[in-house]
């Protein structure tokens, strides 16, 4: 029974999300923390009729690092790849270069669990998520100002004037396409220095897991102070000034995703927004940092150019 559920999920990923064509081989790159799950995914893909291979790489201690075995040489030889790892490999120069120069289609799935795989990739879900993401993008494209509030006390404003809007639809069919699975968000790199206010983290923070009542004071577009539970851990994680830049603002729009301790899923959930600290070159910014860490919060009110945006589908 479980094998058939893996095959159903992998059929959706291979066919609908990655657009795998006859004769193509999908490479699943995994570290030790996800080796068993990745092997089951590869078997599920084969059972669904798709060619799939598996490559194991070392684990990393911090997001943004490139582990041993994870190289341009490994990824440039395949048309499409899934990154099934404990920590994100999205914001690495290896990933950026392979997509940009060699045209490999890549989906990153950091923190993926078996439950997420079989729950979030049902038949037809790819088109639903892509449609919702495209519709939200239509509503907010060309925006200048953002203001938001959260039930835990978040109050923040920032500018996205002149910034490119990025869509993560989950459809990676063209050469060089990249995003997350599960997908379902729209995001900007805020105008540098524009973000100010208070973020009260009440869902998840990458590298820390579930968080509650952790208050982040934002001044001049960067983390100025951290207060409350686990704030010392946070400041150790964001250990230098480039890591403390608020480099991304995103809105979740995947109706299947849930607010939870795993940022990969939490940041896609309807009713959440997220703030990416650190490296933002993948979002059109120019802040170079040792990694990228997403903070996910519940949002009760979102205003784009003084117009309320409904977060519910």
Q: How would you describe this structure to a colleague?
A:
By secondary structure, the chain is of the alpha+beta class. It has two domains: 119 residues, 3-Layer(aba) Sandwich (Rossmann fold), CATH 3.40.50; 184 residues, no CATH class. Helices cover 25% and strands 29% of the residues. It is built from eight helices and 19 strands. The chain has a seven-stranded antiparallel beta sheet with strand order 14-13-10-6-5-18-19, with helices on one face. Strands 7-9-15-16-17-11-12 form a seven-stranded antiparallel beta sheet, covered by helices on one side. β3, α4 and β4 form a beta-alpha-beta unit. α1 packs across α2 and α1 crosses α5. It starts with a helix and ends in a 5-residue tail after the last strand. The mean pLDDT is 94.
As a whole number of angstroms, the C-alpha radius of gyration is 18 Å
Biggest sheet descriptor: 7 strands, antiparallel
The geometry reads as globular
Q: What number of structural domains do the residues give?
A: 2
How much helix, percentage-wise, in residues? 10-25%
Which residue ranges are poorly predicted, with pLDDT under 50 across at least 5 consecutive positions? none
Output the number of helix runs.
8
**What does the average pLDDT come to?**
94
Q: What's the β-strand tally?
A: 19
Class inferred from helices and paired strands: alpha+beta
Strand order of the largest sheet: 14-13-10-6-5-18-19
Instruction: Give the N-to-C terminal Cα separation.
Output: 32 Å
Percentage beta strand: 25-35%
Task: Please provide the ordered H/E string of secondary-structure elements.
Answer: HEHEHEHEHHEEEEEEEEEEHEHEEEE
